[in-house]
Amino acid sequence: MLRNVPMVKVRGIWTPRIDYNRLARDVALALAKKQERLTGNEIRFIRQHFEMTLQAFGSRFDVSHPAVLKWERAGDKPPALKWPVEKDIRLFILDRLLSRPKAFKELYETLREEAASPSKPLEMNVTQAA
Prior knowledge:
By secondary structure, the protein is mainly alpha-helical. It is about 55% helix and about 5% strand. It has one domain (about 25-120): 434 Repressor (Amino-terminal Domain), CATH 1.10.260. It is globular.
């Protein structure tokens, strides 16, 4: 429910004045911090929010574009996505949307490198990093 929403008159009809860019940014940040696994629709939203093609998104997370398409086709269910890749997606959101100190950027790069290395399991609570 919206409260104290600024209104604007459009073609004679009062309608809420919504900053859709800010709304999309806030949704992306909420997805980065949510406790549950990301769903296929949420991954599609993230990819489209950052204006990335299937190929660019797949390349960024070291998977093929058919893999990204498969994730997105999971719809409202979590796809078969390995946790290190999902953490990398969440950190990517935070990196792109938040003004962050140098230490956060260094942590991000370290986690990205470790997530790409299959030899070592990576554990991290995403909500504490944000």
